[in-house]
Amino acid sequence: MTANYKAYLGEVLGTFILLMCGCGAIVVHQEAQGAVTHVGICIVWGLVVMALIYGLGEVSGCHINPAVTVALSLVGLFPWKEVLPYILAQVAGAFLAILCLQLMFPSNAGLGGTYPSGSAMQSWMLELFLTFFLMLTVLLTTQGKKESLISMAPIAIGAVVLLEALFAGPISGASMNPIRSLAPAVVAGKVGDVWVYLTASPVGAALAAGVWRVLR
């Protein structure tokens, strides 16, 4: 198997595991009468991101997020020719995970999706900030010169995901990832506000890329 196809498989697998664990935690929380708790869900998201970066970082870079892939290309850290294959791999992994969750929990209405609890614009602004902070953390921790800094990147990135989910989850769902929101929305048939997540996250990631260039 060529290096490129290994990377694509890594993105499929990584995005599949991300949504199976993260969205699965939300679904199990709902099906088990709140047993997982909001804090528990946040911990799951943070830990699975950290584990995936450690495990798949050397295989595909472990983007598992179209907004991250595009932002890395904007700053010249990822080839543009690989953007579409990576995004298609992420889409495949995400939809496969949500279809598995639907098979296991057919009566669950939301399938772990992100849906604004207030106004759409409120969630849009929040998601923009959340993705900006996450993407800036990714760039600042993975592009450092010291090996010790790079080795700590998965912990820092996972911690940011956990932190943001803790305070923003009840409002916007703390998606920070377009495909993480699109897959459950499409499979559950709740696409009314999906534009919030399809637009805010890429804009936030692109802004972080611009700020990182200035800081650099």
Topology, pairings included?
Layout lengths: L2 H29 L6 H23 L5 H9 L8 H22 L15 H23 L4 H5 L1 H20 L5 H11 L5 H22 L1
Helix pairs in contact: 1-2, 1-4, 2-7, 3-4, 3-9, 4-8, 5-7, 5-9, 8-9
Distance between the termini: 36 Å
* Major sheet: none
Strand content: under 5%
Considering DSSP H and I runs of 4 or more, what fraction of the residues is helical?
over 70%
Number of helices: 9
Radius of gyration: 16 Å
The mean pLDDT is 95
| SSE topology string | HHHHHHHHH
Shape label:
globular
Question: What does this protein structure show overall?
Answer:
It is a single chain. With 216 residues, the chain is mainly α. It is 76% helix and 0% strand. Helix 4 crosses helix 8. The longest helix has 29 residues, at 3-31. It starts with a helix and ends with a helix.
